[in-house]
Amino acid sequence: MITIKPLARAMILASTLVTVSSALASTDWQPMPGEQLIKLPAPVMAQAIERDFRESPLAAELQIRQKEIEDIQSNLGELKEAIASATGQNKVELQHSFLEKKSAYLDTMEIRQELKIGALKSRINLYNQALNELKQDRNRASDPVSREVREAQMAARQRMQRVTGKVDEMFYPAIGGKTSRYNQEYAQNVDQIKALQRAIQSHTAHESAKIDGAEVSREEFIRDLLTEAEAEHALIDQESEMLGFMARLVALDAQALQLQIAYGEEFEAGGIIETGKPASMVDFFIN
Amino acid sequence: MKHLVTSILIAALFSAGATSAKEIQTLKNMERERADLLSAYLDDQVTVDARQLQIQGKQKRLVDLERMVLRDDRLLGSRDRLVRLAFKNYDLSFLVHASTESEHAPIEQWVSEMGLSSEDIKLTESGRR
After folding, report:
1. Closest Cβ–Cβ partner in B13, B63, B70 for A171
2. Which residues from B are below 8 Å from A147, CB to CB?
3. A80 lies within 8 A of chain B by CB
4. What pTM, to 2 d.p., does this model score?
5. ipTM of this predicted structure
6. What is d(CA B94, CA B76) in angstroms, rounded to the nearest whole number?
7. Cα–Cα distance between A235 and B61 in angstroms, integer?
């Protein structure tokens, strides 16, 4: 005997599959500002963003959804096997559960895609911000006023350097060449600074950015990250299209199941058998 | 440990992006000290010896301040008017170093750079404008 429960559930499933609600929890990721990104050493730039992301509520939510998808995937496999060996009412129940799981998969996937797109949009904004910052820096560097001041400053430093000894002799002769505290500590610090600079130059994090082994500028490196993010976004769009087709198939399956439950084998066998066509009735009219 | 490193990195980034008001603080200090040195030269309320001592102390302080400004990377390429003027007029701005280079007293250097002659100075009168 066919029960009404699976029929109602199948009908509801069929009518609601296309409009999946995205009840997203309050998840967010505010990446570091672009001006901070461009100050990071290029090799750690991508890692810093990734780490920043992994510590966000958005990443935590994505992980939860990923786990849900894995569970659903495993359930779907089990259900498919069970359907193959089931019969009668039990098979209908299993088919219905199978459809429900497929529907749940699509819902969860849609939420996950939305979260991923949110994260990618944040990344794309960040890279664009960083590129704008670099552009502004370049403009500032090529600004004639700034360049003029910089040149005057460099010339002034050299000029000061040439006369430093003479100034020290003039102002600190009485105490055996002992100069001011600033001057003494500055001289000591200069040596330390040079040692630190050498260490920084040879540090792995200070290496130039590389793409496929080739050294690239900071701007090129960020542009590469931007391209990767855009590509991932495009692939998610394509996956969304696939999910749309899957949803339509699930809806069709649900409708078919609904009809099967409602009309049973008679419907499946091909519908109404026509009788009483004129040709078969002729004999009744001749005599 | 990771959080400590991140904090240090972020602190370094923020300090690297300090505001322009802070950037030119060393220059402002130097300008103030230079004005004080010039005032000491023109102060007729103290004895010659006392003035000489004052000037000596102020010049030493100015030596340090001038070097701080010249070595200050935060001022590099600054569009600030004060910075532009300071480096445009090295002989006036970095008075102690410039005067040592030219082997003049700082006040002589200043008067000369300002384009004042002995005659001009003799003709001046002190008073309220």
Report:
1. B63
2. 77
3. no
4. 0.55
5. 0.77
6. 16
7. 65
